[in-house]
Design the sequence.
């Protein structure tokens, strides 16, 4: 498979307001230009996977999708958002979504994958916390059978369930899933969640984001997924594991240094082998 340029998927967990999304998009767009990283803006227009009945799920579908359209039009960047039902796939297309994201808990839902594949859009599937990396071969197979091409498929690693209240990241999963012929992204924020807490709200370890991101880049990840927010402590969803927006600059500076070292080492290896 031809190597893809390293890219960034970043944004808030969910669309909270136009003001917040536009601020995040502007900041990350400027950083992406500085570090010459292709950038995709991410925000869920609706959060359906909530533990508690009173958890925030969104500002309303139409309003949230309109915010995503504003981000795309103002900053000329691709946008991605989750879908949860087959019917939502067409809604995403009509709203100008460039990459349809399949949540980890739904990565084996056949009708959902079929609907996403039949849109002709790019599809990013989060690897389920309950799956071995090799099992993602069947996800890719489904998508291809339903009309998607491997050039339109991304897989995102987001950790594997370890006991009841922890996740671990096995960096071997990156090259293993790359063998499927699709780019592999590292979700450096959700991989640091602390799920199933008694409060019914996941915790997180955001101070470890640079560590996970650097390790993934060193392992050859094709892209990085980071949720970020100007004030994570005030975020309405997943604030406990999001990166503060003002720390994105340092993260990207570090990551691109690791990426350049990875490419240099790969070049040396290829030259030595030849």
Sequence:
């Amino acid at each position: 498979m031809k190597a893809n340029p390293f890219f960034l998927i970043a944004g808030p967990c969910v669309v909270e307001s136009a003001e917040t999304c536009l601020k995040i998009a502007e900041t990350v767009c400027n950083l992406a230009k500085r570090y010459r990283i292709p950038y995709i803006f991410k925000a869920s227009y609706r959060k359906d996977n909530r533990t508690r009945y009173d958890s925030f799920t969104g500002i309303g579908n139409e309003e949230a999708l309109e915010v995503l359209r504003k981000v795309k039009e103002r900053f000329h960047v691709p946008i991605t958002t989750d879908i949860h039902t087959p019917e939502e796939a067409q809604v995403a297309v009509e709203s100008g979504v460039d990459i349809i994201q399949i949540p980890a808990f739904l990565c084996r839902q056949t009708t959902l994958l079929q609907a996403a594949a039949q849109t002709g859009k790019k599809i990013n599937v989060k690897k389920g916390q309950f799956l071995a990396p090799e099992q993602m071969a069947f996800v890719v197979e489904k998508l291809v059978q339903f009309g998607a091409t491997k050039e339109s498929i991304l897989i995102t690693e987001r950790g594997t369930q370890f006991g009841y209240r922890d996740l671990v990241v096995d960096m071997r999963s990156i090259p293993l899933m790359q063998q499927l012929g699709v780019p592999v992204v590292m979700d450096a924020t959700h991989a640091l969640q602390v799920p199933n807490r008694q409060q019914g709200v996941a915790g997180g370890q955001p101070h470890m984001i640079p560590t996970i991101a650097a390790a993934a880049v060193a392992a050859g990840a094709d892209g990085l997924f980071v949720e970020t927010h100007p004030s994570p402590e005030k975020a309405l969803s997943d604030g406990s594991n999001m990166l503060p927006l003002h720390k994105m600059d340092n993260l990207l500076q570090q990551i691109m240094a690791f990426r350049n070292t990875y490419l240099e080492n790969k070049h040396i290896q290829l030259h030595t082998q030849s």
Q: What stands out?
A: The CA atoms of residues 8 and 107 lie 21 Å apart.
